[in-house]
Amino acid sequence: MSAEDQQVTHAAVHTSDSAAQPARTARQARLDHLFRTPPSDAPTVTATGVLRQYIEHYREHDRLQAGQPGMAP
Amino acid sequence: MKLAPEQLVQGIHDLPSLPAVVMDLLGSLDQDDIDISVLARKVAHDPALTAKTLRLANAPAFGLQVRVATIQQAVTFLGFQATRNLITAAAITGCFPAGRCPGFDDKAFWRHASASAVCARALARRMRFNQDVAFTAGLLHDVGQLVLASSQPAAYGAVLAWRQQQGCSLLQAERAVLGIDHVDAGVALASHWQFSDTMRQAIARHHDPEVPGAGLLAAIVHVADAIVHALDLAGDEDELVPPVSVVAWEAMGLNEEAYLHLFRETEQQFGDMSAIMSA
Q1: Closest residue in A to B236 (Cα–Cα)
Q2: ipTM score here?
Q3: Are the C-beta atoms of residues B160 and B173 closer than 8 Å to each other?
Q4: Which of A40, B74, B103, B217 gives B57 a disulfide partner, CB atoms 3.0 to 4.6 angstroms apart?
Q5: Which among A37, A46, A52 has CB closest to B246?
């Protein structure tokens, strides 16, 4: 890969991260709103915490699938 | 604005009656020995009920490769139990006029109910439990909300306003404002309409499936309800995931991969159904 290519790739990754961040924050905020569990309920210790973790993985999986570059049309 | 039990009962008695054929079906959810041709003939006398049942039967959630045009065909392709449940679902939607209660979003209600039905059915399949019964229980678990919104619209409007102010759960708001909740109203309706014991128990225990004797169906509906809230499918800004019972969660015995499939299945299948239910 040429230096120019490397620069382009880096720029693309950087742009994609920057674009993804607000969406991720919004998603996280909505999950915080949905799961208004008492602070004593440590995540993953309770069934509610496990459900939240699975939902987070599910949404993250969706995001990766939607944003994956180089996928066949 | 506490609601006396007799006011609740009166409100239920004032609701439109279910068609006789649906009363028969609800009372016999646990039985398999009903004459299909008699059922088909009885339902055919009610064109609106037939039309809505067939629209549901043809929804993508049921995966039919052919389009069914009669109740008899629906029974042939979907099976008797599934058709019976669709007739029940179609009839119940007709009993609750939309738009009577300020702040109550009927479309959001049916989105949640339809998604819970699809999710409960998918859970039941993995648990080797009766999928059709789980579907109906998922659909009807919150029917008490419709009872309160239809029969006590002003009081229920106050409940919804309280929930928004306090940021609490609907159940908490109902108890604080009315002194009763949608579970009480759902159980009262289930008795009035003579639902089967299994269905009554699922409605009564979907918020506390750990009570001895609650049964597996209540646990399935409890977990499906929490999943659907967590997937944020109703389109309700004040959506809140209820605490999930560890006992019910462990009773499902599913791993993360199974849940991810379940989430996908629920999201893909509920949309068309909810549109038909709230039409």
Answers
A1: A34
A2: 0.86
A3: yes
A4: B74
A5: A46
